[in-house]
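Quick start: read one record
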Amino acid sequence: MREWGYFLFFLSFFCFYFAGSMYAAWRVNAGLKLIAPYKHYIYIAAALMAAVSAIAYAFSKYNIEPFAVYLGVPGGIWMGIVGISATVFILNDLINCVNLIFKIKKFRYYSTVVSLVFIAALVVWSLMNAAFILKVKEVKIKVPDLKTDSLSITLLSDIHIDKHVSFRSVQKIVDMANSLNSDIIAITGDIADSDLSETYAKYGLDKLHARYGIFAVTGNHEYYTGAGYYIKLCEELGIVLLRNENIMLKDGDKEIIAIAGINDKKGKAHKVDDVDIEAAFEGIENNVPVLFLSHRPEYFDFVKNKEMSAVQLSGHTHAGQIPPLEFIRKLMKYNYGVYESGAAKMYVTSGNRWWRIPMRTFNASEIVKITLEKQE
Protein backbone atom coordinates (compact mmCIF):
# COMPACT_ATOMS: atom_id res chain seq x y z
CA MET A 1 0.00 0.00 0.00
CA ARG A 2 2.82 2.40 0.87
CA GLU A 3 4.50 1.69 -2.49
CA TRP A 4 1.29 2.67 -4.25
CA GLY A 5 1.25 5.85 -2.18
CA TYR A 6 4.78 6.68 -3.29
CA PHE A 7 3.85 5.96 -6.91
CA LEU A 8 0.81 8.23 -6.78
CA PHE A 9 2.86 10.97 -5.14
CA PHE A 10 5.53 10.60 -7.82
CA LEU A 11 2.88 10.76 -10.54
CA SER A 12 1.23 13.86 -9.08
CA PHE A 13 4.67 15.42 -8.57
CA PHE A 14 5.54 14.83 -12.22
CA CYS A 15 2.17 16.13 -13.47
CA PHE A 16 2.50 19.29 -11.38
CA TYR A 17 5.98 20.16 -12.61
CA PHE A 18 5.17 19.06 -16.17
CA ALA A 19 2.21 21.48 -16.18
CA GLY A 20 4.38 24.26 -14.74
CA SER A 21 7.14 23.58 -17.26
CA MET A 22 4.69 23.58 -20.17
CA TYR A 23 3.11 26.82 -18.98
CA ALA A 24 6.53 28.51 -18.79
CA ALA A 25 7.46 27.19 -22.25
CA TRP A 26 4.14 28.31 -23.74
CA ARG A 27 4.50 31.73 -22.16
CA VAL A 28 7.97 32.22 -23.66
CA ASN A 29 6.85 31.05 -27.11
CA ALA A 30 3.68 33.15 -27.10
CA GLY A 31 5.33 36.24 -25.66
CA LEU A 32 8.27 36.24 -28.06
CA LYS A 33 6.16 34.90 -30.96
CA LEU A 34 8.66 32.15 -31.74
CA ILE A 35 8.02 29.93 -34.73
CA ALA A 36 8.86 26.33 -35.59
CA PRO A 37 11.22 24.64 -35.04
CA TYR A 38 12.44 26.90 -32.21
CA LYS A 39 9.24 26.81 -30.22
CA HIS A 40 9.26 23.01 -30.42
CA TYR A 41 12.78 22.92 -29.02
CA ILE A 42 11.62 24.92 -25.99
CA TYR A 43 8.67 22.62 -25.38
CA ILE A 44 10.87 19.52 -25.68
CA ALA A 45 13.54 20.95 -23.36
CA ALA A 46 10.92 21.90 -20.76
CA ALA A 47 9.32 18.43 -20.91
CA LEU A 48 12.69 16.70 -20.55
CA MET A 49 13.66 18.80 -17.54
CA ALA A 50 10.30 18.13 -15.89
CA ALA A 51 10.97 14.41 -16.36
CA VAL A 52 14.49 14.82 -14.93
CA SER A 53 13.07 16.57 -11.86
CA ALA A 54 10.55 13.82 -11.21
CA ILE A 55 12.99 10.97 -11.87
CA ALA A 56 15.65 12.60 -9.69
CA TYR A 57 13.13 12.78 -6.87
CA ALA A 58 12.28 9.09 -7.26
CA PHE A 59 15.95 8.06 -7.35
CA SER A 60 16.79 10.06 -4.26
CA LYS A 61 13.71 8.67 -2.49
CA TYR A 62 14.98 5.14 -2.97
CA ASN A 63 18.71 6.01 -2.78
CA ILE A 64 19.38 4.70 -6.29
CA GLU A 65 22.96 5.55 -7.15
CA PRO A 66 24.65 7.10 -9.05
CA PHE A 67 21.59 8.64 -10.72
CA ALA A 68 20.50 10.43 -7.54
CA VAL A 69 23.84 12.26 -7.54
CA TYR A 70 23.92 13.26 -11.20
CA LEU A 71 20.24 14.15 -11.60
CA GLY A 72 19.50 15.56 -8.15
CA VAL A 73 21.08 19.01 -8.59
CA PRO A 74 19.82 19.81 -12.12
CA GLY A 75 16.42 18.37 -11.23
CA GLY A 76 16.19 20.52 -8.10
CA ILE A 77 17.34 23.65 -9.91
CA TRP A 78 14.74 23.10 -12.62
CA MET A 79 12.05 22.82 -9.95
CA GLY A 80 13.15 26.22 -8.67
CA ILE A 81 13.24 27.73 -12.16
CA VAL A 82 9.70 26.50 -12.85
CA GLY A 83 8.40 27.94 -9.59
CA ILE A 84 10.00 31.34 -10.15
CA SER A 85 9.08 31.44 -13.85
CA ALA A 86 5.46 30.50 -13.29
CA THR A 87 5.12 33.18 -10.59
CA VAL A 88 6.67 35.93 -12.72
CA PHE A 89 4.69 34.99 -15.85
CA ILE A 90 1.40 34.90 -13.94
CA LEU A 91 2.10 38.40 -12.67
CA ASN A 92 3.07 39.40 -16.19
CA ASP A 93 -0.21 38.05 -17.55
CA LEU A 94 -2.13 40.13 -15.01
CA ILE A 95 -0.26 43.22 -16.19
CA ASN A 96 -1.06 42.30 -19.79
CA CYS A 97 -4.74 42.20 -18.86
CA VAL A 98 -4.43 45.84 -17.76
CA ASN A 99 -2.86 46.63 -21.13
CA LEU A 100 -6.13 45.64 -22.78
CA ILE A 101 -7.30 49.07 -21.64
CA PHE A 102 -4.23 51.07 -22.71
CA LYS A 103 -3.46 48.97 -25.83
CA ILE A 104 0.28 49.65 -25.93
CA LYS A 105 1.77 48.08 -29.07
CA LYS A 106 4.09 45.07 -28.60
CA PHE A 107 3.57 45.35 -24.85
CA ARG A 108 3.40 41.58 -24.41
CA TYR A 109 6.63 41.07 -26.34
CA TYR A 110 8.62 43.61 -24.34
CA SER A 111 7.05 42.58 -21.03
CA THR A 112 8.07 39.00 -21.79
CA VAL A 113 11.66 40.08 -22.43
CA VAL A 114 11.69 42.01 -19.15
CA SER A 115 10.16 39.00 -17.38
CA LEU A 116 12.88 36.69 -18.70
CA VAL A 117 15.60 39.07 -17.50
CA PHE A 118 13.89 39.29 -14.10
CA ILE A 119 13.56 35.49 -13.90
CA ALA A 120 17.25 35.03 -14.73
CA ALA A 121 18.23 37.53 -12.04
CA LEU A 122 16.01 35.86 -9.44
CA VAL A 123 17.35 32.39 -10.31
CA VAL A 124 20.99 33.52 -9.98
CA TRP A 125 20.26 35.34 -6.71
CA SER A 126 18.33 32.37 -5.30
CA LEU A 127 21.19 29.98 -6.06
CA MET A 128 23.78 32.30 -4.49
CA ASN A 129 21.57 32.98 -1.47
CA ALA A 130 21.12 29.27 -0.72
CA ALA A 131 24.78 28.47 -1.35
CA PHE A 132 26.49 31.24 0.61
CA ILE A 133 24.15 33.01 3.04
CA LEU A 134 23.66 31.61 6.54
CA LYS A 135 22.49 34.24 9.00
CA VAL A 136 22.71 34.25 12.77
CA LYS A 137 19.51 35.63 14.21
CA GLU A 138 19.10 36.55 17.86
CA VAL A 139 15.66 36.46 19.48
CA LYS A 140 14.75 37.37 23.06
CA ILE A 141 11.61 35.94 24.65
CA LYS A 142 10.18 36.87 28.04
CA VAL A 143 9.09 33.80 30.00
CA PRO A 144 6.89 33.92 33.14
CA ASP A 145 8.02 31.67 36.00
CA LEU A 146 11.46 31.03 34.49
CA LYS A 147 13.64 29.61 37.29
CA THR A 148 16.76 31.48 36.18
CA ASP A 149 17.46 35.01 34.97
CA SER A 150 18.14 33.84 31.41
CA LEU A 151 18.66 30.70 29.36
CA SER A 152 20.19 30.70 25.88
CA ILE A 153 19.27 28.18 23.18
CA THR A 154 20.77 27.59 19.76
CA LEU A 155 18.08 26.30 17.42
CA LEU A 156 19.11 23.90 14.65
CA SER A 157 16.61 22.51 12.17
CA ASP A 158 16.22 21.24 8.62
CA ILE A 159 19.87 20.62 7.75
CA HIS A 160 18.84 17.69 5.52
CA ILE A 161 22.18 15.91 5.50
CA ASP A 162 22.63 13.07 3.05
CA LYS A 163 25.70 11.44 1.57
CA HIS A 164 25.87 14.10 -1.16
CA VAL A 165 25.96 17.11 1.16
CA SER A 166 29.41 18.63 1.42
CA PHE A 167 31.37 18.42 4.66
CA ARG A 168 32.09 22.15 4.44
CA SER A 169 28.43 23.19 4.47
CA VAL A 170 27.65 21.12 7.57
CA GLN A 171 30.87 22.11 9.31
CA LYS A 172 29.94 25.77 8.78
CA ILE A 173 26.68 25.18 10.65
CA VAL A 174 28.45 23.30 13.47
CA ASP A 175 31.11 25.99 13.88
CA MET A 176 28.56 28.80 13.92
CA ALA A 177 26.37 26.94 16.41
CA ASN A 178 29.28 26.31 18.77
CA SER A 179 30.45 29.93 18.50
CA LEU A 180 27.17 31.10 20.02
CA ASN A 181 28.09 29.38 23.33
CA SER A 182 24.46 28.71 24.25
CA ASP A 183 23.32 26.83 27.32
CA ILE A 184 21.31 24.40 25.17
CA ILE A 185 21.28 23.24 21.56
CA ALA A 186 17.77 22.32 20.41
CA ILE A 187 17.29 20.30 17.22
CA THR A 188 13.79 20.31 15.78
CA GLY A 189 14.13 17.57 13.18
CA ASP A 190 15.01 16.92 9.54
CA ILE A 191 18.70 16.69 10.32
CA ALA A 192 19.31 13.50 8.35
CA ASP A 193 18.04 12.44 4.93
CA SER A 194 20.10 9.25 4.88
CA ASP A 195 21.85 6.81 7.21
CA LEU A 196 24.62 8.76 8.95
CA SER A 197 25.22 6.27 11.75
CA GLU A 198 28.62 5.22 10.39
CA THR A 199 29.68 8.52 8.84
CA TYR A 200 28.46 11.17 11.28
CA ALA A 201 31.93 12.18 12.50
CA LYS A 202 33.09 13.46 9.11
CA TYR A 203 30.28 15.99 9.14
CA GLY A 204 31.49 17.33 12.47
CA LEU A 205 28.22 16.72 14.27
CA ASP A 206 30.15 15.06 17.08
CA LYS A 207 31.73 18.46 17.79
CA LEU A 208 28.44 20.12 18.72
CA HIS A 209 28.46 21.11 22.39
CA ALA A 210 26.43 23.14 24.85
CA ARG A 211 26.57 23.70 28.61
CA TYR A 212 23.47 21.66 29.47
CA GLY A 213 23.45 19.38 26.44
CA ILE A 214 21.74 18.83 23.12
CA PHE A 215 18.04 17.95 22.85
CA ALA A 216 16.21 16.82 19.73
CA VAL A 217 12.99 15.51 18.21
CA THR A 218 12.25 13.71 14.96
CA GLY A 219 11.16 15.42 11.75
CA ASN A 220 9.28 13.84 8.87
CA HIS A 221 12.48 13.13 6.93
CA GLU A 222 13.91 10.99 9.70
CA TYR A 223 11.09 8.54 9.00
CA TYR A 224 11.71 8.53 5.26
CA THR A 225 15.28 7.47 6.00
CA GLY A 226 14.42 5.09 8.81
CA ALA A 227 13.87 6.24 12.37
CA GLY A 228 16.25 3.59 13.67
CA TYR A 229 19.18 5.28 11.95
CA TYR A 230 18.36 8.63 13.53
CA ILE A 231 17.89 7.08 16.98
CA LYS A 232 21.29 5.40 16.66
CA LEU A 233 22.84 8.67 15.47
CA CYS A 234 21.51 10.55 18.50
CA GLU A 235 22.77 7.84 20.85
CA GLU A 236 26.26 7.97 19.36
CA LEU A 237 26.34 11.76 19.51
CA GLY A 238 25.02 11.94 23.07
CA ILE A 239 21.90 13.83 21.93
CA VAL A 240 18.82 13.49 24.14
CA LEU A 241 16.03 12.46 21.74
CA LEU A 242 12.63 13.31 23.19
CA ARG A 243 9.90 11.01 21.91
CA ASN A 244 6.58 12.15 23.40
CA GLU A 245 8.28 12.79 26.73
CA ASN A 246 9.85 15.46 28.88
CA ILE A 247 12.77 15.90 31.26
CA MET A 248 13.57 18.50 33.87
CA LEU A 249 16.70 20.50 33.09
CA LYS A 250 18.69 21.07 36.28
CA ASP A 251 21.80 22.93 37.31
CA GLY A 252 22.90 20.80 40.22
CA ASP A 253 19.82 20.52 42.41
CA LYS A 254 18.23 23.65 40.96
CA GLU A 255 15.40 23.11 38.48
CA ILE A 256 15.62 25.46 35.47
CA ILE A 257 13.02 24.46 32.88
CA ALA A 258 11.14 21.39 31.63
CA ILE A 259 12.03 20.30 28.11
CA ALA A 260 9.32 18.41 26.22
CA GLY A 261 9.33 16.96 22.72
CA ILE A 262 7.09 15.00 20.37
CA ASN A 263 7.57 12.67 17.45
CA ASP A 264 6.68 13.92 14.00
CA LYS A 265 3.29 12.66 12.81
CA LYS A 266 4.88 11.03 9.77
CA GLY A 267 5.96 8.24 12.14
CA LYS A 268 2.40 6.92 12.15
CA ALA A 269 2.30 6.60 8.37
CA HIS A 270 5.52 4.59 8.54
CA LYS A 271 4.12 2.47 11.41
CA VAL A 272 7.03 3.38 13.68
CA ASP A 273 5.47 5.61 16.32
CA ASP A 274 2.85 8.31 16.73
CA VAL A 275 2.35 11.78 18.15
CA ASP A 276 1.22 11.91 21.78
CA ILE A 277 1.40 15.51 22.88
CA GLU A 278 -0.43 14.80 26.13
CA ALA A 279 2.27 12.31 27.06
CA ALA A 280 4.94 14.88 26.21
CA PHE A 281 3.52 17.26 28.83
CA GLU A 282 2.59 14.60 31.36
CA GLY A 283 3.73 15.32 34.92
CA ILE A 284 4.74 18.94 34.30
CA GLU A 285 3.21 21.21 36.90
CA ASN A 286 1.47 24.39 35.78
CA ASN A 287 3.96 26.68 37.53
CA VAL A 288 6.92 25.12 35.69
CA PRO A 289 7.92 26.77 32.36
CA VAL A 290 8.29 24.43 29.37
CA LEU A 291 10.58 24.46 26.38
CA PHE A 292 8.61 22.45 23.81
CA LEU A 293 10.28 20.99 20.70
CA SER A 294 8.09 20.09 17.74
CA HIS A 295 9.21 19.77 14.13
CA ARG A 296 5.89 21.17 12.88
CA PRO A 297 4.56 24.49 14.18
CA GLU A 298 0.90 23.41 14.01
CA TYR A 299 0.99 22.00 17.55
CA PHE A 300 1.13 25.53 18.91
CA ASP A 301 -2.67 25.33 18.88
CA PHE A 302 -2.38 22.80 21.70
CA VAL A 303 0.34 24.65 23.59
CA LYS A 304 -1.41 28.02 23.65
CA ASN A 305 -4.53 26.45 25.17
CA LYS A 306 -2.63 25.04 28.15
CA GLU A 307 -2.56 27.17 31.25
CA MET A 308 1.21 27.23 31.59
CA SER A 309 4.25 29.19 30.49
CA ALA A 310 5.60 27.50 27.35
CA VAL A 311 7.99 28.29 24.50
CA GLN A 312 7.70 26.15 21.37
CA LEU A 313 10.51 25.83 18.85
CA SER A 314 9.75 24.48 15.37
CA GLY A 315 10.96 24.32 11.77
CA HIS A 316 9.62 22.37 8.75
CA THR A 317 8.30 25.33 6.74
CA HIS A 318 11.64 26.54 5.30
CA ALA A 319 9.79 29.90 5.04
CA GLY A 320 8.68 28.63 1.64
CA GLN A 321 12.15 28.80 0.03
CA ILE A 322 11.01 29.98 -3.42
CA PRO A 323 7.94 31.49 -5.11
CA PRO A 324 5.10 30.71 -5.35
CA LEU A 325 5.27 28.54 -2.21
CA GLU A 326 7.07 31.34 -0.40
CA PHE A 327 4.03 33.59 -0.86
CA ILE A 328 1.49 30.84 -0.25
CA ARG A 329 3.08 29.90 3.07
CA LYS A 330 2.78 33.49 4.29
CA LEU A 331 -0.98 33.09 4.06
CA MET A 332 -0.90 30.06 6.33
CA LYS A 333 -1.44 30.17 10.07
CA TYR A 334 2.19 29.52 11.05
CA ASN A 335 5.07 30.12 8.67
CA TYR A 336 8.12 31.90 10.08
CA GLY A 337 9.14 34.02 13.04
CA VAL A 338 7.72 34.71 16.50
CA TYR A 339 4.13 33.91 17.49
CA GLU A 340 2.54 34.75 20.85
CA SER A 341 -0.68 33.83 22.60
CA GLY A 342 -0.92 34.65 26.30
CA ALA A 343 1.88 32.94 28.20
CA ALA A 344 2.71 30.75 25.17
CA LYS A 345 5.36 31.79 22.65
CA MET A 346 6.71 30.10 19.53
CA TYR A 347 9.59 30.63 17.14
CA VAL A 348 9.48 28.97 13.71
CA THR A 349 12.83 28.93 11.93
CA SER A 350 13.46 28.97 8.18
CA GLY A 351 16.03 26.22 8.73
CA ASN A 352 19.80 25.88 8.49
CA ARG A 353 19.84 24.69 4.87
CA TRP A 354 17.36 23.87 2.15
CA TRP A 355 15.57 20.80 0.84
CA ARG A 356 15.55 19.44 -2.70
CA ILE A 357 15.71 22.85 -4.40
CA PRO A 358 19.13 24.50 -3.77
CA MET A 359 17.57 27.94 -3.91
CA ARG A 360 16.13 30.63 -1.61
CA THR A 361 14.58 33.79 -3.01
CA PHE A 362 13.17 36.26 -0.48
CA ASN A 363 14.25 34.40 2.67
CA ALA A 364 17.54 33.05 4.03
CA SER A 365 18.92 30.07 5.90
CA GLU A 366 19.55 30.86 9.54
CA ILE A 367 20.86 29.70 12.88
CA VAL A 368 18.86 31.19 15.73
CA LYS A 369 20.09 32.06 19.20
CA ILE A 370 17.06 32.35 21.43
CA THR A 371 17.48 33.89 24.85
CA LEU A 372 14.74 33.19 27.35
CA GLU A 373 14.55 35.97 29.92
CA LYS A 374 12.72 35.88 33.22
CA GLN A 375 9.59 37.99 33.10
CA GLU A 376 9.14 39.84 36.35
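The chain has a mean pLDDT of 91.
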